[in-house]
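Tutorial, part two.
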Amino acid sequence: MLIYALSFLLGIGLFSLKNTLQISPMEWVVIFAIFLTIFTTFKHHKPLSLNLAILVLGFAWMGVVSTQILSAKIQDNYLNKPILVRGEIVELPEKTSRSTKFIFKASSPFQGRLKLTWYSHYNNKTILSKVPNLRTGESWQLLLKLKHNNGYQNLNSFDYEKWLFYKRINATGYVRTSSDNQRINTDDGAFSIDKVRQDIRYLLSPQIEKKTFSGVINALIIGDRSLIPDAQWSLFKSTNTTHLSVISGLHIGLISGFVFLLVQFLWRYSARLSIMIPAQVIAAYFGLISALLYALISGFSIPTIRAFIMASVVFISIILRRHHDIWQLYGMALILVLLHNPLSVFSVGFWLSFYVVAIIIYGAGQHQEKSWLYRLIYIQLLISFSSLPLSIWFFSVTSALSPIANLIAIPISSFIATPLSLISALLTFSGLTYLSEISFSIVNQSLVYLFVLLEQLQQFDFNQWHYTQTSLIDLALFILLVCVAILPKALKLRWLSVLVLGLMILIPNPKMDDNSVLITTLDVAQGLATVVQTKNHVLLFDTGAKYPSGFNLGGSVIAPYLRAKHIQYLDKIVISHGDNDHIGGLDNILENFKVGEILSSVPEKIQTKALTCQKGQSWQWDGIMFKMLNPEKETSFKGNNTSCVLKISNKKYSVLLTGDIERKAEHHLVQNNKEELKSTIMLAPHHGSKTSSTQAFLNAVSPSLIVVSSGFNNRFKHPAKTIIKRYQSNGIKVLKTSCSGQIDVLLSDTINIKEYRKESAYYYLRQCED
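Running the prediction step on this input gives:
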């Protein structure tokens, strides 16, 4: 069963790596060859034939589901303009102080699942319009502005487009302020588990809202983690204890197991009942029901689905009085989860859940002659060590002290916080609010003590280990290393881990030569962030934006990219000017990386020491020449025209980084620096706006390629169509981050250009149409 499950998973995984939904001629040849192999070998090699058939079935199942989702694409005539839409709120809305995010199932004038944000509007601190109290199950008429699913496409960035596909979201957008926004009805009468979860949240709110850890308590009861503050969530992440702050497979296993043991214990007190139905069988029924109820209340997330399926298989085996090997149960659970939702392969929770459960099953079979305490510590250490490859692959960071954190946090969460939270909820439903208040207070206090401990562990400098794997080969070798290292001692094969470690170390790490420079323009939507790397030095030119919601391009795009390139030190940062889309991410970078020097046209806007960028400044790194062309030391320019303009050159080619200069600065540069402007490649001034890229400036620079950093369908309409036509009429090739994602330009003896979105053109990603 386990081998069949892995074959099914492999088929799904192979389809998930495709660039298009269509089956290519080569793929048809491979499929035909597989069927031919099945027919010719079925009689003599039945297991091989069955596994090949199941692999093709997994491939086809993923294709069917993916086609169904993508065929529900919303037509372009409904996008990028105000449109009145009717539909129903599904799932639990996530409310913050400034907005409410929710999933809207549209029914008219089109059908689809929309991810929407409804903002409150302020004038200074005065609320002009407030988001109404939204509840799941309500029908609304809303004036919306929608857009295609879109996300940042960079090395090591969170793939938002893939996440939207996994969540089956057809478009995203926001609610516009309008009198047309009307609640149609509050309840259509249909039963929904999300309504039940919402009712629980509102019923418990008066009891827990003033508790320090009300968000965690809410998450442990109904699986809604939207109320957990960022500070608490960050601490759980930094100590690898996030699985304890929400309903996970561990919690469902503990609760259903506790119910099973309790019912079995009580049932055996009655000889008559035990004769009618064996205690173990009736207890299995109750265990199954409790697992189902808790999984439903949690919202049926991937870890809870997996836990419920595994618990179901165990309890049903007891009810039917059949014995199954634990690995058979594991394989059944894997197949059932993938049949239920093959898109689970895009979920981090899926991989972590099944990987960790496999480690637990293996660890539980080791050292059975030892004490329960020894085995508990062994399994915890085994999980922490074995999960390193996936933690680093998915999060680029792991906690060195997570074994200690989990040894204390697991008992607190499993035996105090979770059961008492559920008991408190039951007491509230029963009207025993005084007892529930006491119980909730105990839960909150236990979490306070746990939080203090985790804060102490977090403060150790060596706690967080940042490392990034960008190659599947690296990941495979890391997992192989772990698997070999944890083999039973009696096999005498652990020495092979040294060999695997040697392979990992010996894998060549490409490094640039002298006179070579890599200029990477990151996809930061409507903004700019460019990383310049020579053989031994790194420069960051601008840092993208920071938004009122707290979302920061420095932390979400730039930092992950730098860590993927194993960069910990920035020799220089250049902030071209003071606009948010160029300076917003700087604070995050300064908090997480060591920096040598900062140059800027607005040093007064930078919290730490910074120098003014000026014409004439120059330096050389590894054969690469850097020269500042703007602004003048004494200049009357203001705003965009004061942008730092930096020219980067090797012996054959050059790149001009222009910031947001406009006509006045361009004219000044042409008049005073015409010879120095000539460059092979230019970063489009001011994102390709109408106020820049004058013909005289283009003539002086005479680039063969222009890179435009701008957001997809941005409200400024950058780059302007007239400017793109001007570039094209001059015979200049144009690349846009909105179309290409991250753009890498390597200058050495030749020019090598890579476009990240095209290099990773998976079938579920937005296709570039402009």
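The mean pLDDT is 88. In part three we will examine how such features are distributed along the chain.
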